[in-house]
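Marked as duplicate of an earlier ticket. Keeping the data here for the record.
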Amino acid sequence: MDIKAQFEQAVADSKLLSEKPSNETLLQLYSLYKQSTEGDVSGDGPSNPFDFVNKAKHEAWSGLKGKTREEAMQEYIDLVNKRKG
């Protein structure tokens, strides 16, 4: 199975995890998903200083700048497989 198919399976599997992941893990999954599907983040992020959730998402995604889509896909796959046990 190629990396794209493995990634798509991991995305489906992530929705079926028996335990809800921690907020930190959810941020990792979000940022890896965005890097995998869209590449490097663009823009400055949310302008509202009280928009903590979107600010955290933007910062997590920004932290992956320069990582290839394939690298992000593999990390996403590995993280979901680890959570599956």
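See parent ticket for discussion. The helical segments are 3-14, 23-38, 52-62, 69-84.
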